[in-house]
Amino acid sequence: MKMSKLFVQTLRDYPSDAEVISHKLLVRAGYIRKLANGIYNYLPLMWRVLKKVENIVREEMDASGAQELLMPFVQPEELWKESGRWDVYGKELMRLKDRHDRGMCLGPTHEEVITFIAREGIKSYKQLPVNLYQIQSKFRDEVRPRYGLLRGREFIMKDAYSFDVNQEGLEKSYKIMADAYTRIFDRCGLETKAVQSDSGAIGGAVSHEYMVLIDDNENNAGENDVFFCKNKSCGYAANANHAVSVLNPAETDGSKYFSGLNKVDTPNTTTIEELAAFLKIPQTVILKSMIYIADNKVVMALIRADKTFEETKVMNAVKAHDIRSAAPAELEAIFGASKGFVGPKDIEKVKIPDEYDGETIQVVADLTAKEMKNFVIGANETDKHFTGVNWSDLKEPVFADIRLVEKGEKCPDCGEPLYVTKGIEVGNIFQLGTKYSKAMNAVFLDENGKTQPFIMGCYGIGISRTAAAAVERHHDEHGIKWPVAIAPYHVDIVPVNVQNELQTKVADEIYEKLLAKKVEAVLDDRDERAGVKFKDADLIGFPFRITVGKTIDDGLVEFKTRETGEVINLTPEEAVNKILEVLGITI
RNA sequence: CGGGAUGUAGCGCAGCUUGGUAGCGCACCUCGCUUGGGACGAGGGGGUCGCACGUUCAAAUCGUGUCAUCCCGACCA
Question: What is the nearest nucleotide to A200, using C1' and CA?
Answer without folding.
Answer: B76
